[in-house]
Amino acid sequence: MFFKVVVGLGNCGVFYENTRHNVGFAVVDYFAKTKGYILWKKERAMSVFMLKIPQSDGHLLLLKSTGFMNLSGDPVAKVCSFFKIQSSEVVVVCDDITLDLGQIKITERPGTAGHNGLKSILEKMGPGFVRFRVGIGKKKHPHMDLADHVLSRFDGEETEILAKKMPNICNSLQLLLDKGVLSAMNMVNRSVCEQNLTEQP
Question: Which of the residues are catalytic?
Answer without folding.
Answer: 21
